[in-house]
Amino acid sequence: METFVALFGGLPREARRLQDFECQEHSAGWIRRLLGKGIAGNYVIAYVHGDEWSTFCFDRQTTEEYAHEEDEVWLVEAYDSSGASSSQIFHYVPDAGRWYRPRSSAAAAARGRDTSHTVTPPKPS
Questions:
Q1: Sign of the dihedral through C-alpha 114, 17, 45, 67
Q2: Pick from 29, 33, 119: nearest CA to 77
Q3: What is the per-residue DSSP string for 71-102?
Q4: Cα–Cα separations (whole angstroms), residue 43 to 13, 46, 96
Q5: Total count of domains within the chain
Q6: How far apart are CA 86 and CA 56, in angstroms?
Q7: Which pLDDT tens digit goes with each residue over 76-111?
Q8: How far apart are the C-alpha atoms of 48 and 46, rounded to whole Å?
Q9: Is residue 122 part of a domain?
Q10: Which alpha helices (H) appear in the chain, and where do they start and end?
Q11: Does residue 124 lie in a domain region?
């Protein structure tokens, strides 16, 4: 998950990953609710840089829709302290430890899959 954030997270190099115990007392209510007890989502990680924060929620897609895919398919939702959010499908190659976007959003849409959509962001705390 950290390699995903390094490649696609758009964070400054100085951003630091929060540990679970830090999330329990973070000033942002969103982080406390999402990560504070480590129970939300399949995999959730948070980063801070100064007063700004970002969270990444990873949800493995194992439905029949993705059964034909050779690589793992993940829905990744990202939220940050500015109120920005995104939700996109990514692929992961476990043997190589490599993340990538599907080749073409148009091709995915033609196969009936939306690879990117906007989600409602949490209220910044």
A1: positive
A2: 119
A3: SEEEEEEEEETTS-EEEEEEEEETTTTEEE--
A4: 22, 10, 20
A5: 1
A6: 10
A7: 999 998 989 999 999 999 999 999 999 865 444 444
A8: 7
A9: no
A10: 2-8, 20-23, 29-35, 105-110
A11: no
Segment holding 44, helix H or strand E: strand 43-49
Strand 85-93 versus strand 52-60 pairing type: unpaired
Return the higher-pLDDT residue of 115 and 3.
3
33 found inside a domain: yes
| Residue 112 in domain | yes
**pTM for this model (two decimals):** 0.73
| Residue 110 to residue 113: CA distance in whole angstroms | 7
Proportion of the chain above pLDDT 90, given as a percent: 38
Domain containing residue 101? 2-117
